[in-house]
Amino acid sequence: MASAQPKFRCGWCDSSDLYRQYHDEEWGVPLTDEQALFRLLMLEGQQAGLAWITVLKKRAHMDQLFRHFDIDFLAAKGKERIEDWLQDPGIIRHRGKLEALVSNAQLVQAMPDFAEWIWSFSVCQSREPATPVPAETAESQAMSKALKKAGFRFVGPTICYAFMQSAGMVNDHDPKCWRYAACERAVHKALKAR
What we know:
The protein is mostly helical. It has a single domain (16-193), classed as Hypothetical protein, domain 2 (Endonuclease III, domain 1, Orthogonal Bundle). It contains 9 helices and no strands. It has helices at 17-25, 34-47, 52-65, 71-85, 95-109, 114-119, 138-150, 157-166, 180-193.
């Protein structure tokens, strides 16, 4: 009996099982829920200056500590907990990033529809065969500029593009990747639903 062919995946996820699991189950799957989008944007901001694997390794503990990056909790109680959080080795201990979690949550609270607004920067685009994945795009630059203008922190254009890729606002799976077709359909469906 012949063994099954291994699944072809995007090259960036080959280095660890944690990357492969994230790629196979989450990366590129459209998120439309405000809380899920906020959590992902904050996780992407935590990555600034670090490898994504660092965030993935600490994500479960951060979810526990920040109550899955609960907007209301962070906005109301976060400021008084920053000093305690800075002592916790299970998270990314960076004062500026922790302060941004709190202030960004407060900004989202004040927005009428964060999810709809953030999705307004997406365009229906997919990765073309044999083209490199960009670090940022005109759309991620526009998102970053608008977020910064609104007062958000740790939302540069590269962070915003990584967020767009992960949140399914763009399909950057390699066209040969086994996840490409499913994510392509999901991205189109999410954009049509807007």
